[in-house]
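Field guide to reading this record: the first block holds the primary sequence, the second block holds the structure written as discrete tokens, and the final block holds curator observations. Each block starts with its own label. This record concerns CRISPR-associated protein Cas2, catalogued under organism Gracilibacillus boraciitolerans JCM 21714.

BLOCK 1 — SEQUENCE
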Amino acid sequence: MMQYSIYVKSCLNKEQAEGTINLIKRFLPRDGHVRSIIITEKQFEKMKVLVGEEDRNLNILGENRTIEF
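BLOCK 2 — STRUCTURE
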């Protein structure tokens, strides 16, 4: 298991997603592990809840289109 915190940023296209990753790279900590993955909206919609209930009230953080779980 690798998850401590998960952040999701919705991007309009692959180029915007790559730009976001490049921006994040400028602020990486010296230690720890930071990973990224690009998935399509369709793939995100196919995510299955294995335990608990699906949370329809995700916390959308401002205009930067970031969703925090």
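BLOCK 3 — OBSERVATIONS
The helical segments are 14-25, 41-45.
Residues 7-68 form one domain.
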